[in-house]
Amino acid sequence: MMSSTTTPLRCILLSLTVIRALAAETGVTVEDPAGALGRTAAPVSLSVRLTADQQAAARAGRLGCQEIGAISHKQTDVVPVQWQFAPGGSEARATWLMGAGETGQRRFAWRSAATGFAPAMKAVRDSSTGQLELTDSGRPVLRYNYRTIEPGEILQQVAEGNRIYTRARSDYVHPLYDLQGEALTRDWSLDHPHHRGLYWAWPEVDFGQERGDLHALQRVFARPTGALQLESGPVFAQVEAENLWLWEDRDPIVRERTLIRAYRATANGRVVDLVFRFLGLRDGVTIARRGTSAYGGFNLRLATPQSQEIQVHTDPPNATPRRAWSDLSGIFAGAQASGLTVLQHRDNPEYPGDWIQYPELSWVQPTFPSSGTRYALPRDRALVLRFRLWIHRGSTPEVTASEALWDAWHASDSALAELADLQAGSP
Q1: Helix/strand/coil percent split, the chain, to 5
Q2: DSSP assignment of 361-402
Q3: How far is CA 313 from the centre of its chain?
C-alpha cells in the first residue's frame, strides 16, 4: 500500500534488516539463534518469490504471515506484512515485525486475509505547512521538514551575536515524538538557533580552498530538489527525499538522498531507521568535525527532560560483535519517563564513531569521520551512513536490552552485497 508524490527516486534503501532465510512460495524460515528478533519485536525484511495468487493478495494488502510449529505462538494469528515489488518478475520484499517466540529456526507461512490490513502507518504532506508527517493510527510519530523554513519572528528574539546563525533551514526531523506523544526534540533554541532537532550536517565543509559550515548554516545549505517519494502501509511509513548542498546557496556540490522509515509501535517501543547517502558533484569536497575532533555528523538536539540520564557504550576493539549505542532518557513532559536510543550500524565507514555529549544541551551524538581526519566526498562513490533509533518508555534500558536491539539489527551479513550496490549506485 503506497502513495507517491512528485518525482520517484531510485529506492535508496534496499534493505534495513535482512535476515538469512530460506525463501519459497509457501513461506520462509528465519534464523534467530539468540532470540534477539523476538525479544525486541524487531523489523524483518527479506526478498521472496510469490505465486500469481499470492502476488494479487499482496498487492491488495491482504497477504500476511503466520508462524507455524511454534509452541508459544498463537497459531491463529496472521501478522500484517508490507510488500514492495520490483519492476517485473515475481520477487517481492516482505517486511513485518517479529513477535515473541522460540529461539533458533522460526518458520512462517504466507496467509491471505479476507480484507486488507489497515494502513496504520502513514506518510503524508501537511496541507498547511507543506512538511511531511509520519503517523501511527493517527498519532504523530515525526515531522520531516523538507520545505525550507524561514526564521520569521524568532530572529528578533535571538541575541544580536547569534543572529548570524538564525538562518532558513530544511532537511531535518522535528518534532520526533515519544510513545506518549511528547516531543523529544528541540528546534530554534535561543542559545543555539542553528540547532534543529535531528539533522545530518558537518561544521567543516571544504570546497577547494574555501570552508563552509552546514551545521551552523554558513555558506553551504541543504536545499530540497522536490524529488520525493512517500510510502504508507500496515508495518511502516517512510520518506525518501533528495536535497542538494548548495555552495553560497547557489552552486550544487553534493547530492544527498535521505530515507526515514518509522515502524508501528509495539509494547517494547518504536524503531525508526535512517539512511543517508552523500555523493560529491564537484571535485575537492571534504567534510570534518569541528576542529576535526569535536561534534559533527548525525546531530541530535533533544528537549531537556527532568531527571535526565545519558549513557554511551562502545565495546572494546577486540569484542565480537563490537556494539555501539547511546541513550538519553528522562521525563520530557507529563509524569512518565521515556527516552531515545541511537544505534550505529557496523557497516558505516570508520565504525564505530566517537560519542560526543553536551549534557547541558541534552545532546549526545555518534560522530563521523574519525577524529583528526577529513573525509572526501568523491564523484564516483557515495558515502552511506545508517542509524537506528529506538523510542522507548521508561528510563535508561538495561545493557542487555540495548545489546539485543543492536543484535537484531545486525542479524545477518547478507545485507552487505546490497549495501555495496547502494554505495556504487548511479548518481
Answers
A1: 10, 45, 45
A2: GTEEEEB-S-TT--EE--SSS-EEEEEEEEEEESSSPPHHHH
A3: 20
Nine-digit cell string for 373: 581526519
Q: Would strands 363-366 and 355-358 be described as parallel, antiparallel, or unpaired?
A: antiparallel
Secondary structure of residue 162 in the 3-state scheme: helix
Is residue 282 within 8 A of residue 273, CB to CB? The reply is: no
Helices (H), ranges, 90-213:
154-157
pLDDT score of 413 more than 80 = no
Lay out the sheet containing 306-314: strands in order across.
Answer: 220-231, 236-247, 251-263, 270-280, 383-393, 338-344, 324-331, 306-314
| Range name among 25-34, 76-85, 415-424 with the lowest pLDDT average | 415-424
The string of pLDDT tens digits covering residues 96-120 is 999 988 888 899 999 999 999 999 9
CA distance 17 to 82: 14
Spatial separation of the C-alpha atoms in residues 402 and 383, rounded to whole Å:
26
- Which residues touch 220 (CB under 8 Å, ≥6 apart)? 205, 207, 212, 213, 214, 245, 246, 247, 248, 253
For the whole model, what pTM was predicted? 0.92
Q: Is the dihedral of CA 212, 218, 261, 294 positive or negative?
A: positive
Tell which residue, 278, 298, 321, has the closest CA to residue 413: 321
Question: Is residue 418 packed enough to be buried (19+ CB in 10 Å), middle (13-18) or exposed (0-12)?
Answer: middle
208: Cα separation from own chain's centroid: 31
- The helix/strand/coil state of 55 is helix
Between CA 171 and CA 223 the distance in angstroms is 7
Give the pLDDT confidence of 211-260 residue by residue, as tens digits: 999 999 999 999 999 999 999 999 999 999 999 999 999 999 999 999 99
Mean pLDDT of 355-367: 98
Mean of pLDDT over the chain: 89
pLDDT, one tens digit per residue, over 141-181 is: 999 999 999 999 999 999 999 999 999 999 999 999 999 99
C-alpha–C-alpha distance, residues 235 and 254, integer Å = 32
